[in-house]
Write a structure and sequence with these properties.
The chain has about 325 residues and is mostly beta strands. The protein has 2 helices and 22 strands. It has a single domain, classed as Glycosyl hydrolase domain, family 43 (Tachylectin-2, Chain A, 5 Propeller). The protein is about 5% helix and about 45% strand.
Length: about 325
């Protein structure tokens, strides 16, 4: 274990388990995070006893304890009106869009042809307006940027090819419904690297003075299964297709028993974080072993400084020639 110690695990981890919910469920994990009024909220992925997932909101005054859960699923799949959700909805990421004064939620809809990215809007995480699919299957790990670039919205996502590695891509839209200008953003590495073969975005991009901070997971295939660990990158503020820095080493990985043992062992999978620049704090909410929710905290300035010190990629844009 050689993490740089940027993120410190909460001593009360896991902070949310399925047994905490007010109704029966199998597991809870991979939650979007948001701030609403004076509270921290999570939009939890909850897997029911059939094996299908829905989303349920939880709220807390301090973001650590005293979680209050909706008494029933907050957002369920609706295959009658949205057939792409026939096998559930999963892994949300929530981005506040100041221009629209609402949250843009990218989530995985599980269709008969595979998982795909859908979008929904909400102001209060009680009522939602679905925009429908943004990307065809198979595609996962989507999140919106909070503002437009050149008049267009931007979405980070991870298409899964039939053959070959799975990279992180970016696409643009004038209206959040029609997407194009697709480009490769961050390639998975090759060979024995910790992030070779398949990578995917974690929480939505976070704007800092140094650039857009992104956290991503890398999946390493081992003799005993897949191992999920985390790395980071900085993107240019005005043209986020330009990668300024990228960590070579993974910065956070499964180490504690609750991260190593569960429905899917060896997984740390963040979908949400909450930044408090006035306190120089970054709170990371992550799924552990596809079984529970855990929390880790860091000094935001330390995280940005660490990523800024990491190597500049040989190709600033993934489409550049080395």
């Amino acid at each position: 274990m050689s993490e740089p110690g940027l993120f410190l695990r909460d001593p009360d981890n896991p902070i949310i388990r399925a047994a905490d919910l007010p109704y029966r469920a199998s597991t809870v994990f991979n939650a979007a995070a948001f701030r609403l009024d004076t509270e921290t909220g999570l939009l939890l992925r909850v897997e029911d006893l059939r094996g299908l997932s829905h989303l349920t909101a939880a709220r807390s005054h301090d973001g650590r304890t005293g979680w209050r859960f909706d008494s029933q699923p907050t957002l369920e799949c609706d295959p009658e009106h949205h057939p792409e959700e026939v096998w559930g909805i999963e892994d949300p990421r929530a981005t506040w869009l100041p221009e629209r004064e609402e949250w843009g939620i990218a989530y995985t809809a599980y269709s008969r042809r595979g998982p795909l990215i859908s979008l929904a809007m909400s102001r209060d995480f009680r009522e939602f307006t679905r925009l429908g699919p943004a990307m065809p299957p198979e595609d996962k790990d989507g999140a919106l940027f909070p503002r437009r670039f050149g008049g267009r919205w931007a979405l980070i996502h991870r298409p899964v090819p039939v053959n070959g590695p799975a990279h992180i891509w970016m696409s643009y839209s004038p209206d959040l419904r029609h997407w194009g200008d697709h480009s490769l953003l961050l390639p998975a590495r090759e060979g024995a690297w910790w992030d070779a073969g398949k990578i995917g975005l974690g929480p939505p991009p976070l704007e800092t003075a140094e650039g857009w901070l992104i956290l991503y997971h890398g999946v390493r295939r081992t003799a005993s299964g897949s191992l999920y660990r985390l790395g980071m990158a900085l993107l240019d503020l005005e043209d986020p297709r330009i990668v300024l820095n990228r960590t070579d080493e993974w910065i956070f990985g499964p180490a504690e028993p609750y991260e190593r043992v569960g429905d899917v062992a060896g997984v740390v999978f963040p979908c949400g974080w909450v930044a408090a620049p006035e306190r120089d704090e970054l709170r990371l909410y992550y799924g552990v072993a596809d079984s529970a929710i855990a929390l880790a905290t860091a000094r935001l300035s330390d995280v940005v400084a660490f990523v800024r010190s990491c190597p500049r990629p040989p190709m600033r844009r993934a489409t550049d020639r080395p």
